[in-house]
């Protein structure tokens, strides 16, 4: 079954040269039935495998990863969810409610580092943008409608964090923001040959290596999760976790949010990656995990 990333690659990327090219355009005139006609030809030659005999210029700047500054301030004790496209399309209602509760807590007196940061990679923005015009059915709506809603939520949340004020009527410190969206300027040029799934996994690995923070990929895409786990990046499916939470009966979104908050505590995070174990817990065992209160 194709994923959102596969759809993006097929519809948007296509085949393009992956390195520098030399383009030669020639023009010639020749007679045809007593008239002179001009003809043109264009030749494109990829140069990515050619070596520069002169070597690099002495004063040329060396190009490092462009994403060095993205969330470089993350503390090793921080916890972050990197959101895949499918999560923002199929589970936006829960993500939106969760982010809202966390952000409200950050606007109160004595706000501290959030229990979890939500991170949207830039490649996810690209996928959402491509899907905005899609008429592909998804439940009772279309993929395009879901993509447009996700896009609006991302913008609204970014603006609320940037221009909102805390209880002291001061701007909110970016370190207290809940949602962090990767900008194009922070994407590494070294990752341009990667697929979208690989790019997302690479961002997770980079953040973990750079900051030592606990990074988890949140995705319902089995292939993306497998790639992340192979890179020692823990993953979980939000849909499967919610299904495990609902084992003891239906719950409101607010109740789901409180339990997700509970599972973000350091000693319980491993349950996110083990929905089968989570589903096997009895109501009494759930209570034994620790009480949770509204954020």
UniProtKB/TrEMBL annotation:
It comes from the Eukaryota. InterPro entries: PIN-like_dom_sf (IPR029060), PIN_dom (IPR002716), SWT1_Regulator (IPR052626). It holds the Pfam family PIN_4. GO terms for cellular component: nucleus. SUPFAM superfamilies: PIN domain-like. Residues 81-238 form the PIN domain. Gene3D superfamilies: 5'-nuclease. One of its GO terms (molecular function) is RNA nuclease activity. This is Origin recognition complex subunit 2.
